[in-house]
Amino acid sequence: MTTNDREWRFLVAESETPEARRKRRESVGRSSGETYLGILRELSPGAACDRIQPADADAALSPGATLAGYDAVFLTGSPLHLYEETPETRRTVAFMRAVFASGTPAFGSCAGLQVATVAAGGSVRPNVRGREAAFGRRITLTEAGCEHPLLAGRPAAYDAPSIHTDEVEALPPGATLLAGNRVTAVQAAEIRFDGGVFWGVQYHPEIGLDEVAGALRRQADGMVEAGLARSRDDVEAYAQQVDDLHREPDRRDLAWRLGLDEQVTVERLRQTELRNFVESLARLGRAGMQVVGR
């Protein structure tokens, strides 16, 4: 894609705790923020990309930087539970409120959607229909979602990488529901608050299938406890198939066994929402992003 000749400034907000970052690097070689940095550099070559860890007590922007000085902020996934009052959740929610107040457009996946929801006055809870693991199935566009540029190019129903044990309970006032499915009512939404705008999804358009497999392995005990697998060996067998499909995305036999189509197996389609956000920003600019969907 192209983001014209100007140099874009992106900020990746990685709310994983240091321990979660360590485990993810051991599992797949990169933290959630590093995954975002990699894909943003592919989508917008030449963009200046910074990272901040807002859950950390010593988190700070680079000297001289301000939130308003960035073209967009990207919120990663995280194991934080936003319904718990902890120093990490308070710092992360306060950061997102500052992003809204700055007027800088923001995008987030998984916990990123949940952080924006709580920051704007909505609520989050544990998944009431059980965890969504590996892939969110039959995610369906709402009427508003069919018209919103975040989901441009998605079919009426699709699957996507999805790993979460919490969900949005209630969107904040003025938010727009864009997609949902049988397991998770809020799969995509636009949130406006305090002069800012956020586009987000509960699933993970930014991750590859290798990262799906890594997440399954990290959460193997939870998968067994939830009744989604009979043993850790069952989880490993499933994760191995996902890993194999990552290495050979054209293997129709693996896609068939896993029940996946090109919306997941083709990287460009899997990244649809993140691509749409960056392309909308390039096309409309900061001011235009504020009025999309109104």
TrEMBL record:
Highest taxon of the lineage: Bacteria
Cellular-component GO terms for this entry: cytosol
Pfam families recorded: GATase
InterPro entries associated with the record: ChyE-like, Class_I_gatase-like, GATASE
Glutamine amidotransferase domain residues: 66-209
Protein's name in the database: Glutamine amidotransferase domain-containing protein
Organism: Methylobacterium tardum
